[in-house]
Each structure stands twice: as C-alpha cells, then as structure tokens.
Amino acid sequence: MEKTIIIGAGLSGLTAAITLARGGRHCLLVSLQASERAQSVLAEGGINAALDVMGEGDSPQYHFEDTMKGGVYLADENAVRRLTKGAPEVVRWLAGLGVPFNMAEGHLVQRNFGGQKKKRTAYAKSSTGKMIMSALIDEARKYEASGLIERFPHHEFIEAVIEDGVCKGAVVRDCYTDKSAVMRGKVIMCCGGMAGLFPNMTTGTTQNSGYAAAKLFEQGVIFGNTEMLQYHPTTIGIPDKRCLVTEAARGEGGRLYIERNGEKWYFMEEKYPELKNLMPRDVVSREMYFVRRREDCGDTVYLDMTGLSAEIWQKRLPDLRAEIIHYLAIDPAEKPVPVHEGIHYFMGGIYTDINHRTNISGLYAAGECTCQYHGANRLGGNSMLGAVFGGKTAAEDILARGENGNSGETEFSGECHADEPSEAVRKELGEILYSGLGIVRSEAGIDSAIARLDALEKREGIYPRTRLGRSMLMSAKARKESRGAHYREDHPDKDESLRAPTLSWCEDGEVRVRI
Amino acid sequence: MPETGRKGVNAMTTELKILRRESAQSEAYRQSFIFETEDENAAVSTALTALNARDDLKDKDGKPAKPIRWECSCLQKKCGACAMVINGSPRLACDSKLKELGSVVTVEPLRKFPVVADLIVDRKVMFDSLREMSVWLKSELTPDENTQDIAYEASGCLQCGCCLDVCPNFYAGGKFVGMAGGVPVSRLIEQLPKDEKSEILKEYRKRVYEGCGKSLACRKICPAGLDIEKLLVNSNAASVWKSLFWRKK
Ligand SMILES: Cc1cc2nc3c(=O)[nH]c(=O)nc-3n(C[C@H](O)[C@H](O)[C@H](O)COP(=O)(O)OP(=O)(O)OC[C@H]3O[C@@H](n4cnc5c(N)ncnc54)[C@H](O)[C@@H]3O)c2cc1C
Ligand code: SF4
Ligand code: SF4
Ligand code: FES
C-alpha cells in the first residue's frame, strides 16, 4: 500500500490528511508538535469567501479581482481563480464540521478586512484559527481511529528522499527518542511560514523554524517570491516575539493616528478616503513607517479602538481586549494602543503549479510554505483559505493519480540531526536579513546585508538556512522596482516588465535567481 | 525592530530551581539558574529561552550545564505547549510573569504524564482518550446560532493538560479522562442533533460524569480561562435528561 507523507499538521496538513482519508488513502501525518500547537491556532480575524450573505452582491469574481490587485498581479492567476471559486465551498464545509462562525438570522455573518471592498471575511469572534483547527482535529481523529491517518506528533522533518530527480519519501527524527526513520511515499510539505529565519521578530511560532523549507531549497526545490515579507501594521512587542493586533480591530472600526503638531492625525483616512485604515497591509505599514519619520510628527503610531461599542468588544473581539490588557496594561476600549509594524506572513515560498506540485515529481506543497496565491502582498483572511484549499487540492491530485508503490512499515533506528547552526548564528542571520529586507529597501542596504552574510558563512559555514536567506536577499536585489510588500527607495515605481514571480533555486551549491 | 516588551524601571533577579532529568530512565535532580531582566512582562518562558541561548550555560554554582529541554510554540498562551508546574501549580510558562512569582521559582514537569526529558512530558494519553471516546462528527452539521456559544467555549481547549495535573480523580490509564477529555466532548454534546447524541452521551457519562467530583479545581487552573462549569452544567443536563428518558422507556 502506498502512503502519503504529510509534513506539518496545521490547517493545510490536516486538510490534506482528511481529504486523502476520505478518498480511502493512507497517510503519515508528521509534525514537530501536536496540531493544537501549530501556528494556525493563532489566526484571529477570519477566512475569506464570497458567500454573498451581507447583501452587498459579492461574488468570486470580485474576490478574485481583490486578491490579484492586493498581490499587485504577481500571484498565479489561474490558481487564484480556482481558489476564489472554491472558497465558498471551503467555508461551508468548515461550518458543517461545526466551526462556530458568528451568525445572525440563521446565516453566517462576514466582516470587513483589508484590501477588500466587500464584507467577505467569515469569523468566529477573534479566535477563528483556533476554532477551525479544533473542528479539523476532531475530523482527523475519526480517520486516526480507522487507521487511515497515522500521526507522528513529535517528529521532525530532516530531509526529502530524492532519487533520480523524483521524491520518494522523507527522513524524519523522533524528537523524544532521537531515532530516525525513512518514510516512503509521495510527500506534501505543509510546514508553514519561514518565521524562524527571523528569530524573535515575527508574530509566528518558534515551531516554524524555517528549517524544512531551507533544506528543500538546498535539495533543489524551486522557490518563488522569497523577497516578499508581509509586515503587519499593528503588532505589539512582547517577550521573544511580536504579538498581533488583528486587522479585525480596524475592520470593526479601529483607527490609526499619529500626533502631528500636538493633534491627532488620522493619516490613513486623509490619504485613502475609500478604504481608509483598511488599505492592504503593505500600504498601511509603509505609511506608518513614513509618518513616523516626518519632522512634524511624533514617533509612535496609535490604534484608536475607543469608539468600538461594548457589543463589538464582547461579541466580536473579546480575546483581543484581554490580550492587550495582559501585555500592555492598557484597556483598548478606553485608551489608544501604541502599535508598530512587525513581520507577520511570508508570501514567498515553495513554487508550485496550480495542483500544488513542485518542480520535483512526487513532492507537493501547500499552506504558508508556498507562494502561488498571494503574490506581492497577501490579503488578510486569504491565507487560512489558501492553506485549507491548498491542502485539499494537493491531496486531490494525489488521489487522482492513483496508487503506486508500497510504503512498507515505518521503522525508527539510527540517529540523525537537522543541519542547523547554533542559536546565536541563527539570530545573527535573522538580523542580517532584517537589515536588508525592511519595509523600505535599497540596493546599498541589500548589498551590505549580502556582504555580512558572506562573512557569516565564511566564519560559521554554509547551512540550508543561510542559503535560503541568501535567496531572499538576492531576490530583493533582482527586483529593481517597487511592488506590494517589496518597496525599493531607489526604484520607487512599478516596472511592468517585472510582472512575474522571482524564482530562486540552489544549483551545485550556488543560489540562483531569475525573474 | 522596536524593543520587545515594556521595560520596567527595576532590574529583577530570579533564581529558577528546575527539576531535571536527562531521559525517562535517568535520575531526577534539581539545578538552579540565575536570570536577570528589566522586562516586566518577562515570563518563565523568557527565562528558559534566554538561558538556553547562552553559549556556555552555567548553573547558579558556576557549573557547566546542558540546555534545558522544554516545549514551546506560540509564546502567547494560545497553544498549550509550555505547560509545566511552576511554584507547585500547573501553568503555562509563557503566561507566568516572573514579577508575580517571587525571587525563587521552582519549575517542574507536569506530574501526571511520563517525563521525556527535563520539562518535556508525553501527553499522548490525552489524545488517546479522545480517540477512545470517538470525539468526532459522524455526519455534517447544519450551523445553528443557538449552539455557537457553547461550541466556541468548548473548542478553546488547548490540550495543555493543566487540569489533569490538579484533578484529584484523574490518573493516566484510568477510565476517567478529566476535563481535557470533557471539554472537547461538550462541543459535540451541544452541536449534535438530539437524535444523534446518545452514543456520545454514553461515553460522556462513563468517562467524564461518573468520575468527576465536581470540585472544579480544574476551572481555577485552566489557563485558557474556559468556563468549565458552564460546559459541565450543559453536558450534565443533556446526559441526565437522557438517562431519565431512558429509564422511563
Ligand atoms: C498571529 C497570527 C494571526 C493570523 N491571522 C490570520 C487570519 O485572521 N486569517 C488568515 O487567513 N490568516 C491568518 N494568519 C495566517 C495563517 O494563520 C497561516 O498562514 C496558516 O494558518 C498557515 O497554516 P499552515 O498549514 O501552512 O501551517 P502552520 O499552521 O504554521 O503549521 C505548520 C506545521 O508544520 C510543522 N513543522 C514545521 N517545521 C517542521 C519540521 N521541520 N518537521 C516537522 N514538522 C514541521 C509544525 O509542527 C506545524 O504542525 C495569521 C497568522 C498569525 C501568526
Ligand atoms: S471538577 Fe474536580 S474531579 Fe472534575 S475534572 Fe475538575 S478537578 Fe477533576
Ligand atoms: S480544559 Fe483548560 S486546563 Fe484542561 S487541557 Fe483544556 S485548556 Fe488545558
Ligand atoms: S508557548 Fe504556546 S502556550 Fe506557551
């Protein structure tokens, strides 16, 4: 019997496993920790689908247009078309699994989210990711009991088994016993975003170390748009990480301002009268960066949520309020909250076709570790959608291809370890990458980051993660224009001849980039 | 990147007394470490992260020490990974601010699960219980506004295991599964249509209701702040109603 190996048990991994199991196929579901600990449980604001329940005449076509425009036309058009068309079915499926989405008068309700002209984001108060994960975990359990899903919940992906250019499986390590095993079968990578390339600087989890993606990069998997990092406009600093203040806070009426000559200046509302505080994240973050640098302005941007009604706090954003009080000792219902841009999402990642196949036969990828849906900037609510839809699509492709080969039993014996440098080196790499890949970039800044990376590799050796980091910097250098999250002060305009993904890969140990 | 955390005025020095064990087989021993910070939001997780980031970790007496093994993920009290026993009570390390814990803090692994190493325990038994109780839907639901509140609360369980640590009636391998089992089950009890509830109620009665002393020690400790009492009352009502109904039949 052929089994499929799924690396990662967040939204995309669980959906892939459930889809395979419903089709009667076996899978091995591998993750560093239990699904309850995956980054997906942190998602707050919601998931997008043109359900057209808010009386605004929404449609998948509008969802498609907003997504392409938000990503500044770098996303894979065919993939986005399929995603937005399939979105209503995804959300209805999740509701049928018992996800307690907010409802009114017998139907789901949807909220405003950045970069979208219609209320299109379905939500469960401010814990949408946790609610969806709990339902998917229950659903997967049904197939664990029947043996179709076999869980490996404290196991680390070490490398893909690639023979003659075909992926034949994966090597994994049991983190509890240190023993390793070769698992044989097709592989779907659902290993999440590359937060670990920027230690302590993102809203993500420590589990998403970025190692799995980096190793695949070293093994010859093609990546796309690795220069595209999403800086979320509203985060707060807490120990060892950034904590997100969900975009739903602005969707429900929160307003950004800075003090100018002693007065509150609602700069987003003045500059963008249509979408105001809900412009796409790249735009909002950049505006915040620039207003803070103005002579006549203070150096802190505030999110003013004092106008939100008691009902909104209680019914739609209860967890958010408690969180801000916990960390900042500020009640956001009474006082504006100081916020700052923080790294939040990786639009770039493994490059796949619309069926989620990578350039290596037998190897698939879905979820935040991939790049096809979000282009140069991801719209809030589209990533949970992309993760669920991607996991489903990859699994359906595997189902359609039929079974071949025999996976055999998984046996753990020898020891092996991830090819990783010390924590201090990982931190230094993160600082180097951050210095070249800020909200505002320039050739000089990128070059100096590359020079520091050269020195780091010379001193400490070359690792998968230093290579993937190099791909990010080289991609940012190659894209001599400004588009979405990638803003170059030396090339502040868009260049339509560069309207194509930045591909990068590793060949004979060298990192290469092409647009 | 701006500074993380709010800086307090005063530096704070904490001694962490950690119960350590190299592997499941080896002897347990206590080892103390000193951690200093000016961040008033610094939690036990902050200290563990900082200690492990030291190139040459030394204990309080200056003796070289191995990195402290523990699990974390979200660092914002939403994933349950970092549950451990702090000053005698089960808590999330990332939700345990040092300034509220005193200058000497004892840190131990959860007590009802087998230890893997240092502060890591294998919480497999929780996941096994849910599987044994068949906690899943057999068919698709029609969303119902009236069940959303309970379902939301019950879906919030982190599977951290803190409730099991304090529960006087729970032990691994026993019939009673504690609230880490009782909370997720209560979602199904609430959401399933009336005529499809009987099997899950039977499991609930056998593996939750009959074993629970209802002291609610679990509710006080639950780091997700779940309203366990509300869930229990709701599930018990359904379960008692059902048993009366059966007797009448
Ligand atoms: C704070 C926050 C709020 C968000 N809010 C929203 C929102 O409102 N709406 C929205 O659409 N999106 C939101 N997002 C983004 C969205 O949650 C994620 O993009 C999405 O959940 C990713 O799912 P995933 O399946 O790709 O991966 P993840 O959930 O990140 O899971 C990754 C899995 O891979 C495993 N893994 C990683 N490395 C290895 C390895 N080496 N070996 C084995 N396993 C490994 C992990 O253990 C984990 O199981 C938010 C993100 C954050 C951080
Ligand atoms: S109420 Fe008491 S007996 Fe019941 S689960 Fe909670 S702690 Fe255990
Ligand atoms: S009920 Fe609370 S304490 Fe128990 S496992 Fe769930 S979140 Fe943890
Ligand atoms: S690390 Fe997630 S709860 Fe502490």
The CATH superfamily of the largest domain in chain A bears the name FAD/NAD(P)-binding domain
| DSSP summary, beta strand count of chain B | 7
Instruction: Decide which structural class fits the backbone of chain B.
Output: alpha+beta
Number of domains of chain A: 3
Lateral arrangement of strands in the main beta sheet of chain B: 2-1-5-3-4
By CATH reckoning, the class of the largest domain in chain A would read Alpha Beta
The fourth-level CATH homologous superfamily of the largest domain in chain B is: Alpha-helical ferredoxin
Rg over C-alpha atoms of chain A, rounded to the nearest angstrom: 22 Å
Q: If you had to describe this structure to a student in words, what would you say it looks like?
A:
The complex is a heterodimer of chains A (515) and B (249). Chain A has helices at residues 11-22, 60-70, 77-96, 128-145, 211-218, 248-251, 267-271, 281-292, 310-315, 318-328, 382-400, 423-436, 443-460, 464-478, and strands spanning 3-7, 26-30, 47-48, 103-104, 107-108, 110-111, 121-122, 149-152, 155-163, 166-174, 180-184, 187-189, 223-224, 229-238, 241-244, 255-260, 263-265, 297-304, 337-346, 349-350, 363-365, 503-507, 510-514. Chain A has 515 residues and is an alpha+beta fold. Chain A folds into 3 domains: 3-224 and 347-415, 3-Layer(bba) Sandwich (FAD/NAD(P)-binding domain); 232-344, Flavocytochrome C3, Chain A, domain 1, CATH 3.90.700; 421-498, Methane Monooxygenase Hydroxylase, Chain G, domain 1, CATH 1.20.58.100. In chain A, the strands form 6 sheets. Chain A has a 6-stranded antiparallel β-sheet. Chain A has a 5-stranded parallel β-sheet with strand order 8-2-1-12-21. Chain A starts with a strand and ends with a strand. With 249 residues, chain B is an alpha+beta fold. Chain B has 2 domains: 7-121, Beta-grasp domain (Ubiquitin-like (UB roll), Roll), CATH 3.10.20.30; 124-248, Orthogonal Bundle (Fumarate Reductase Iron-sulfur Protein, Chain B, domain 2), CATH 1.10.1060. Chain B contains 8 helices and 7 strands; from the N terminus they run E-E-H-E-E-E-E-E-H-H-H-H-H-H-H. In chain B, the strands form 2 sheets. A 5-stranded mixed β-sheet of chain B has the order 2-1-5-3-4. Chain B has a two-stranded antiparallel sheet with strand order 6-7. Chain B is elongated, with a radius of gyration of 21 Å. The interface between A and B is large, with 59 and 57 residues. The structure holds flavin-adenine dinucleotide, iron/sulfur cluster (2 copies) and FE2/S2 (inorganic) cluster. One iron/sulfur cluster binds at residues 166-170, 178-179, 212-218 of chain B. Chain A: InterPro entries: FAD-dep_OxRdtase_2_FAD-bd (IPR003953), FAD/NAD-bd_sf (IPR036188), Fum_R/Succ_DH_flav-like_C_sf (IPR037099), Fum_Rdtase/Succ_DH_flav-like_C (IPR015939), SdhA/FrdA/AprA (IPR030664), Succ_DH/fumarate_Rdtase_cat_sf (IPR027477). Chain A: GO terms for molecular function: electron transfer activity; flavin adenine dinucleotide binding; steroid dehydrogenase activity, acting on the CH-CH group of donors; succinate dehydrogenase activity.
